[in-house]
Specification:
This protein is an all-alpha fold and about 110 residues long. It is built from six helices and no strands. The chain is about 65% helix and about 0% strand.
Length: about 110
Amino acid sequence: MALTRSFKESVQARVLADRAFREALLREAIETMLAGDIDTGKTILRDYIKATVGFEQLGEATGTFPESLIRMFGPKGNPQARNLFAVIGHLQKQAGLRLRVAGTKAGR
């Protein structure tokens, strides 16, 4: 019988082992939110947080209760911009990244 892991376990293992994948996942979460798909972006960001820093440490770093962060990135979460940017700022710093927004013309 073959041993299998869940998709989330596989993603978490790859995030820990592959820096390029980890950075791409963080970028994808933010780009997805900027494109207007907030729910999917929050889901990707929640998975990224769980696989890297964790909600406890993120809460300490941002001055936010871990339970509030978990709700914020949950299916019904509606984070305030100040809280969302505090989280993104910390995640960038922790990852050694400096993300920026660049404009491009939309396809017609």
